[in-house]
């Protein structure tokens, strides 16, 4: 699983996402994250095909949406997803949000994993408590937990829990949908390291041991976000960024989604 991925949430339209993903692949991204909720699976599939890059070189991720959860519905949803993506397997398939039917959904993921249709299975937006409940009746532990993670939402307890159970944490919304650019400390570190604020935050993710999937539609930003491997942030500055945590969420609270509140975004 490449440490740096490319997110496709909130792309403008199918034509836009095709060009954006092709640009990301051209720059060198090989980890592409999509989901039915994003309405980008078809565009991602077209982009991969038109890029002429071997499918085996790309780490392709999608998710099962809330209304598709449950054993049989998940199996059906998976078939729809791979058809839209123009592939016959996924590298990673996630439960998008914790739901009352997540245990049944997980059984379907285990079946697909054992049959070789998915190389790795995981969850998204699961808290420590929700993971513990899932563990009670499953055979295979999640391999990944994709969660909201950024300087204002560090979730140290979740980091430690996932490390203990060998679950790789992955960050969505690592740049807080642009709000990182307003944080004075990050401006200081940008000047200190001669790197952009985006690069500081994304490099911090990697040094924290978190896979990160920034999203942009700008070719220059897509390239900038990938330029992370020629510098290192000091431990002291890593800790300073960690201390920015105020448990602030850009997206929905997993407990509220579990209770059936509608995701508005």
From TrEMBL:
The record marks 63 as: Lowers pKa of active site Tyr. Its EC number is 1.1.1.274. It comes from the Bacteria. Residues 4-245 form the NADP-dependent oxidoreductase domain. Substrate binds at residue 96. The active site is at 38 (proton donor). Keywords: NADP, Oxidoreductase. PROSITE patterns: ALDOKETO_REDUCTASE_1, ALDOKETO_REDUCTASE_2, ALDOKETO_REDUCTASE_3. Pfam families: Aldo_ket_red (PF00248). One of its GO terms (molecular function) is 2,5-didehydrogluconate reductase activity. The keyword Oxidoreductase applies. Belongs to the aldo/keto reductase family. This is 2,5-didehydrogluconate reductase. It comes from Clostridium carboxidivorans P7.
């Amino acid at each position: 699983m490449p440490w740096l991925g490319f997110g496709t949430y909130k792309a403008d339209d199918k034509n836009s996402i095709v060009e954006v993903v092709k640009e990301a692949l051209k720059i060198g991204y090989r980890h592409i994250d999509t989901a039915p909720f994003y309405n980008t699976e078809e565009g991602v599939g077209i982009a991969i095909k038109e890029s002429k890059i071997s499918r085996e070189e790309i780490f392709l991720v999608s998710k099962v949406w809330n209304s598709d959860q449950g054993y049989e519905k998940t199996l059906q949803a998976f078939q729809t997803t791979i058809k839209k993506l123009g592939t016959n397997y996924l590298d990673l398939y996630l439960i998008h949000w914790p739901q009352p039917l997540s245990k049944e959904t997980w059984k379907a993921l285990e079946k697909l994993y054992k049959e070789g249709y998915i190389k790795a299975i995981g969850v998204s937006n699961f808290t420590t408590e929700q993971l513990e409940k899932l563990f009670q009746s499953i055979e295979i532990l999640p391999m990944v937990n994709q969660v909201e993670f950024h300087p204002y939402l560090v979730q140290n307890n979740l980091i430690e829990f996932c490390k203990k159970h060998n679950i790789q944490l992955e960050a969505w919304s690592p740049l807080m949908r642009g709000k990182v650019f307003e944080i004075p400390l990050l401006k200081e570190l940008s000047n200190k390291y001669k790197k952009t604020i985006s690069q500081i935050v994304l490099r911090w993710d990697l040094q924290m041991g978190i896979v990160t999937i920034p999203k942009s539609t700008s070719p220059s930003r897509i390239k900038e976000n990938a330029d992370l491997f020629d510098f290192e942030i000091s431990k002291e500055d890593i800790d300073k960024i960690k201390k920015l945590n105020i448990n602030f969420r850009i997206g929905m609270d997993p407990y509220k989604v579990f209770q059936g509140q509608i995701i508005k975004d």
